[in-house]
Amino acid sequence: MKVDDFYFSVRGEKIKLTYLSSYDVSNRITILFFHSNGFSAQTYQKLLDKFIKNNFNTFALNFVGHNGSENYFLISDWFLFSDQILQFLNFIKEKFNIKHFHLVGHSLGGATSLLAGYFNQEDIVSITTWDPVVLTPFFSFFLYFFDPPLAKQAEKRRDHFKSLEIIKRSYRMYDSFKYWDEEIFDDYLKSCFYFDQNSQTYRLCLPKEIEAKIFRSLKFGNWKYYKKIFVPIYVISAKQSKVVPKRACKLLTKNHKLSRYEILDASHFFPMELPNLTAQKTIDFIVKIQSLLNV
Predict the structure, then answer these.
(1) More reliable by pLDDT, 168 or 242
(2) What is the pTM assigned to this prediction?
(3) Which one of 3.40.50.1820, 3.40.50.1980, 3.30.930.10, 3.40.50.970 gives the CATH number of domain 2-147+220-293?
C-alpha cells in the first residue's frame, strides 16, 4: 500500500498524520480503517490486504503519535480521534471524489468510528467495530472515580529493548501477544518500534505515557452519541472482552434492522489472532450492506 500524508487541524495547529492507501477508480466499495491505541495501521496489513483483494478501496490512518504521525499531547477526550476520522473522511472524499464510506475500527478505532458515525450519517454507509472500547452506560459512569486498568497496564509496559528479537521473545510470553499471527506480529514490530540512536535501543513509537493518557481520556457521556447512530453497525466482540459487554453489543445494534453483533471465542486481539476470519466476516457484512442499500 502507498504511504502518504494528511494534515489534521486542531486548536489552530496542523498536525501531520500518515496513512496507507490503495485506490482503484473501478472499485465500488471504500473502507476507512482505524487502529487500536498503541498500535498502527501497518499492524493490520494482513487484514487490509484481504480487503484490497476483494476490490475494496482501502485507506488506513495512523492516529496522532502512531507510526510516523506527529505527536499531540493535549488529549482531553476521544473526540480528538473522532475528529481525525471525520477530517480524514472529508479529505479522502475530496481527493478521490468518493461519496460513500464504510468505517472499520478496532478498540479505540472502533469506539471513535462510532462517535464519527453519529456526526456524519450521510457519507457513512456502515460501521464495523472490532471489540470497541465502549463499556456500557452504567460502567462508563465509574470512569469518574477509578483509574482505567488499561492506563495502568500501559504505564507498566517496558518501552526500550536492545533488539527486536528480544522484544519478540519478551512479548510472546504474555497472553495478549502469545496467539498472534506471525506475520501480523512482525508488522507490529516493524511499525510500532524505532531505533533510538542516543540510547542505542529500540523504543515504542508511541510513548507509554501518551498511551496511558489516551485511555484516561475516555469519558462518561459518549453513550448519548452511540445511541443515536442509525446506520448499520456490525459489532464483533470476544468472550474474553472486558471493553464491550454483551449488553453493549445489543444497545449498539438496536437502531437499524441490518445491524448485528457476534461474539467470538477469542481475546480482545482477535483481529491479530484470527485475521482471515475477522477480515472475511467484515467483508461479508459490508458486501451485504452495499447490496441491500444499493449505494
Answers:
(1) 168
(2) 0.93
(3) 3.40.50.1820
